[in-house]
Write a structure and sequence with these properties.
The chain is built from 4 helices and 3 strands, in the order E-E-H-H-H-H-E. The protein has 79 residues and is α+β, with helices and mostly antiparallel strands. It has one domain. It has a 3-stranded antiparallel β-sheet. The chain is globular. 20% of the residues are buried.
Length: 79
């Protein structure tokens, strides 16, 4: 699985985490990759976020996490 370094803000605090992303998501479209990164980050720091992620409101995963939990992915890069 490819590894990504993800920089994010959560409730105004900046942090960084290294995440492994499934190969099929990493080789898919940019939006699918960003959704996979956002979901994996939420799994690690917000285990209760599954309801917000599954809620069907036309937004991508990163937008849902920003609205529901003030979690903003500021940057990511493959390492």
């Amino acid at each position: 699985m490819p590894t990504y370094r993800v920089n994010y803000q959560h409730i105004g605090s900046n942090d960084e985490m290294t995440l492994e992303i499934p190969t099929d998501s990493a080789s898919a479209s940019k939006q699918q990759l960003e959704d996979a990164i956002a979901k994996r980050l939420a799994d690690r720091i917000l285990p209760h976020a599954e309801l917000a992620i599954r809620h069907d409101d036309g937004r991508n995963v990163a937008e849902k996490l920003e609205k529901a939990y003030d979690l903003i992915i500021t940057d990511y890069q493959r390492v």
